[in-house]
Amino acid sequence: MRQSLPLSLKSSPQGNAAPEEIRPPSLARRVRDFLSLIVVSPTAMVGLVTVLIWVVLAVFAPQISHYSPYEQDYTQINKPPSSQHVLGTDHLGRDVLARLLFGARTILLLGPLSVLVAFLVGIVLGLPAGYYGGWVDETIMRILDAFMAFPTILLYMIIISALGPSALNVVIAIAIGGTPGIARLVRALTMDIRTREYVAAAKLRGDSDVIIMVREILPNCRGPLIVDFLMRVGYAAFYIGTLGFLGLGLPPPTPDWGGMVQEGHTRMTVNVWPVLTATLSIISLVIGLNLFADGLREESMRYQ
């Protein structure tokens, strides 16, 4: 059986067959293709369901728990789970379930936000490095190598120690730490794509380098970048929890899973519930994001 031609033919005024321009797939088609990858992958489905559960719990936190995460009741200190407090209370009499649910809001907001900032900066640096090469590539990559010389958690600690613990500074620290790896990925993809025929055709049309990088190269990098984004959100959630445990995360009394572990680990012999629930929450969210990303990567590679 002969394969159908990738271009449909139509008659020209001279009677010759001329190729008809192919339109790029619509947004709806791209969404359907993306959803189909999720449906056929059990790994991606498990990861997506896990993440969605936490998203729903975070959105409906006030309806699920009738307590404020800041409310202190000194008559209910270190209480075990009961009908009144489903997951018990902490050393200040605060409801553990409320702090857990509102802490999910914090980590689900700061994680993707910090990775998004890192991606924006990484794309701005990686595209010209891969497209131009030469001294542009060398200059950008050597600067990024200086940041990669630091262990990740040490770099975060240095940045937050200098700027002070806050939600904004956590985002800045994770964005700075993630930018070099993202820029390297974008650079590698750009170096491969810049040799394709459609990039050469854009140059012949007279498109500027910026237009070529934004319209021709970047959209064709989206598959690997989406998978990398999801993986990095999982890492960001882990590091946000780690920084909270080290006392460099969100300042108290802001609900923070890492802060819950830090506050409760010295009192585990009296009350293990704040530490146990916060730790399991971090683990489940990170695993869910990693499973989702792994499933998408496996299925996308299968169809290549």
Description of the structure:
The protein has helices at residues 27-39, 42-59, 61-64, 96-132, 134-148, 152-163, 167-193, 197-205, 209-217, 222-245, 257-264, 273-302, and strands at residues 9-11, 17-19. It has 304 residues and is an all-alpha fold. The chain has one domain (34-302): MetI-like (MetI-like fold). It has a two-stranded antiparallel ribbon with strand order 1-2. β1 and β2 form a beta hairpin. The protein is elongated and about 75 Å long. The two termini are 22 Å apart. Mean pLDDT is 85; it is low at 1-24.
Helix and strand arrangement:
Blueprint: E1 9-11, E2 17-19, H1 27-39, H2 42-59, H3 61-64, H4 96-132, H5 134-148, H6 152-163, H7 167-193, H8 197-205, H9 209-217, H10 222-245, H11 257-264, H12 273-302
Antiparallel strand pairs: 1-2
Main traits of this protein?
12 helices, mainly alpha, 304 residues, two-stranded antiparallel sheet, MetI-like fold, single chain, disordered N terminus
